[in-house]
Amino acid sequence: MKETNSRPLAVFDLDGTLADSAHRQRFLERTPRDWDAFFSAAPQDPPLPEGIALALESARECEVVYLTGRPERCRRDTVDWLAAQGLPAGRIWMRRNDDRRPARRTKLEVLRRLARDREVRVLVDDDELVCMDAERAGFRVVRARWAATSAALKDAQEREGRT
User: Fold this and answer.
1) Is the overall model pTM greater than 0.85, yes or no?
2) What's the rounded Cα separation, in Å, for the pair 63 and 51?
3) Going by fewer Cβ within 10 Å, which terminus of the chain is more open, N or C?
4) Percent of the chain scoring above 90 in pLDDT
5) Between 162 and 126, where is the model more confident?
6) Distance separating alpha carbons of residues 55 and 59, to the nearest angstrom
7) Before 102, cis peptide (omega within 30)?
């Protein structure tokens, strides 16, 4: 049963949606990929103005929450980064440190769980496979197409389930 007295949810991805992770893509372009360096550099991500503005606008009508493929071990850095950007405090769903499933599976699982109790007004994400699966499941999606894409990151999201 959905909560009728709660604001709807606006669900935002982080990397490539709110945070510009382009400066750390180099860690994924080498073999083997350096995941520790990739995630350690996340606190230096510049904000993506389009994503930040959309999150702040969404906060007028919705509760803003965050759904990321980042592993749980990145929580403190993520919380600090969101606060430094002036983004609304909100719940953050992160991947378990040992979870290697594709982002489209893990994110859709969380979206469905959220939708059991609350209206999910929108998902904002840059991962095309996540967006397509969310739309097929009946969610309204805004594709974050304002950041440079990385073939290495796309491959890692789908094949290695790392972000």
Assistant:
1) yes
2) 15
3) N
4) 77
5) 126
6) 6
7) no
